[in-house]
Design brief:
Blueprint (H helix, E strand, L loop, with lengths): L3 H20 L3 E3 L1 E6 L2 E6 L5 E3 L5 H4 L10 E4 L8 E6 L2 E6 L3 H4 L10 H15 L5 H12 L10 H4 L4 E8 L2 E8 L4 H4 L16 E5 L2 E5 L5 E2 L13 E8 L4 H21 L1
Antiparallel strand pairs: 1-8, 2-6, 3-4, 3-5, 5-8, 6-7, 7-10, 8-9, 9-13, 10-11, 12-13
């Protein structure tokens, strides 16, 4: 008969060590970072002002965090050709991309919207009003999202959120965190989707992430003050939107769990 107490102790030891490892998990930054396509480098200057600086290094622009995001790298412009930021985190390849019209609409009508469009607008409405959007209001908002607006200089709102400004990328324990620079107060933008959007409403741009063989779209409607600004009338980059997704399991955690399984297998072999 297998000694249940010894078996349980081995597994508990392995899982306990794994939990301890998570509690003191290392932070992994983006290595071998390369940007391709049309990019704009926004570097921090005097008194927290961001300005375009082509000479800035990628590593310096991505050195921030939620408390002090600093500069950023803007991928593409207004749903233009795709630009990417690639590298590795904890040995795993990662690609962050800008979006094109095809991510939002598959044809030449607002009626050909994708699931991303519906999800983004529904989430924006939920965050602003604390309630689900009605089917009728959703269709009105999607039409507004598709059509060019004079407020945005002739751009359609979907173009306005398709060129993410990335301030930092790192893995913290089991979480992958990306900082998106944006408007701390996005009310004017959100009122293009719903005229009743309350003052102080927030909305991030969208970044397309491919990590661990999975592609997702990341965005949020909750910003913190960034401490920096582009100094324009819109208040660009005054908000930091931190988006989080699950990182691939840490190798150390998997190894510790494997020790527990291996120990259990060894006990079974001895008892056979």
């Amino acid at each position: 008969m297998i000694n249940k107490f010894k078996t349980g102790a081995i597994i508990a030891l392995a899982l306990g060590a794994a939990a301890s490892s998570s509690a003191y998990a290392a932070v992994y930054t983006l290595d071998n970072a390369v940007a391709s396509g049309l990019i704009t480098k926004w570097a921090e200057g005097p008194v927290g002002t961001l300005s375009i600086n082509p000479a800035a290094t990628i590593d310096s622009l991505l050195a921030g965090n939620a408390a002090a995001p600093g500069g950023n790298i803007e991928l593409s412009k207004y749903a233009g050709p795709v630009s990417t930021l690639t590298g590795t985190i904890n040995g795993h390849a990662i690609t962050l991309s800008s979006l094109t019209k095809a991510d939002w609409f598959t044809g030449n009508s607002f009626g050909t919207y994708t699931s991303l469009t519906e999800q983004y607008i529904s989430a924006a409405y939920q965050a602003a009003f604390g309630a689900a959007i009605s089917a009728a209001d959703l269709q009105t908002a999607i039409q507004g999202f598709y059509n060019p607006s004079a407020v945005l200089g002739g751009l359609a709102p979907f173009q306005f959120v398709s060129d993410p400004n990335i301030s930092y990328v790192f893995q913290d324990g089991a979480d992958l965190k990306v900082g998106l620079a944006g408007l701390y107060d996005a009310t004017a933008f959100l009122r293009l989707l719903s005229p009743l959007a309350p003052a102080g409403s927030q909305a991030s741009e969208v970044v397309k992430l491919t990590y661990g063989g999975v592609t997702t779209y990341l965005y949020t409607f909750d910003a913190t003050p960034s401490g920096v600004t582009a100094g324009d009338r819109f208040g660009s980059y005054t908000g930091n939107y931190e988006v989080t997704t699950s990182a691939v399991p840490l190798p150390g955690t998997l190894a510790l769990f494997g020790l527990g399984v291996a120990g259990l297998a060894a006990i079974r072999r001895r008892k056979a």
